[in-house]
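Appendix B, record 7
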Amino acid sequence: MRVTIPPVGMRTIRHGLAIFLAAVFVRGFWMARTSLGPGEVRGDAIFYYQSAVHLASDHSFHDDAGYRALRMPLYPAFLAAVFLAAGPAVLAAQLAQILVGAATCVLIFWAGLAWLPAEGALLAGWASVFYYGLFYPCGRLLTEVFFAFMLAVLFSLWLRWHAQRWWVLGIAGAGAALYLVRPEGALAVLAIALLGPRTRPGWRPVHSLVVAGVLALAMLGWGWRNRAAIGAFTPGTTGAGFSLWAALPRTMHEHLKLDLGAPPAQPPSEELARERFYRASALQTIRSAPPAKLIEAMLFNLVSQFYPFLPRYELTFMLWLPFWVFAFWGARRETALWPLFLLTVSWPAVFIVFGGADSRFRQLYAPLLLWLAGAGFVSLRERCGKARVWRFLLLWGVLNLVPFLFWPQTRALALKLKLLL
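Structure tokens (predicted):
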């Protein structure tokens, strides 16, 4: 596939506007039906909400417990901006996320036009409107919506690359912002820096150095801020220890039922002590685990990320699964796919070790999967013909309606198969 980047004409604007309005409607409808209102401030959302309230009121970054580096700062800063404009209401944050999520869909379409035929870009854009992994998180006060948006911004700039100084700085700034939403965003920046000279015409090594250098400055700046706030240079978060424990150790304790000693007791309340406590507990469990069981836990965490039940059968993920898997085959000759391919392999690998058995992680890189689905669709159309591909998509959709409509029974069957394996 080689596509000349078209100018942004009225046809493109009309398509983008239609995608945006449809995405707002889908997300608003879903949020209205499923939102828990103030009850959304639970779990990880507690820190995000409380730290955003403090940022908006007294311009300090911490939650009510005094934790100052438990999570990265940019998503709470986004919430704080919303709260400054509309007050510290959960509904205000949800409405802002609906708009951000709709903008993500437009970016997926717009960036797709840079390297896909119009049909493939439209398919990726409209698929993003109805993709569960993109509209489901809009009502949650978690990072998924904002991370997916910043990821779409980064790759939209990169895929529509112009050999200009300001364009490079835009890519570098978007990459640094992605890192400040979640630390694993650094992998996207490194993928672009490493593969840029081989995948983008006019991209030179100096551009990669600029992108990597701005990322390094963001890491240093956040690390020095944490040194002043908590007394330790921390370019990531003090939640990394818990994320490490929640992955392989918890999988072995809770899912594989291994007797590796008692799980961690109540952690200390002090922030750095809590981080060291969970990290030490995790490393002790990993060191004491038999190698075969450690590999089994890794496979369990990996498969869980692509598990199709949430708990209901995730129809939109399964519908496009054959297309983005087929796109991996095309990545051998389509250089534009290389960074997307690298990230869809490396991010699940990271979540095996930092995160655990949670299919929610794939919501973070949903834009990549939809671009790959568009690329896979176009490749199959070129090989098999347009009519055959649409017939396959229709047949595949009908086959997936059975587990979708009878998901309690199919989920029970899937759980039995998992136990057998």
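Remarks on this record: The chain is about 70% helix and 0% strand. The first helix runs from residue 10 to 34.
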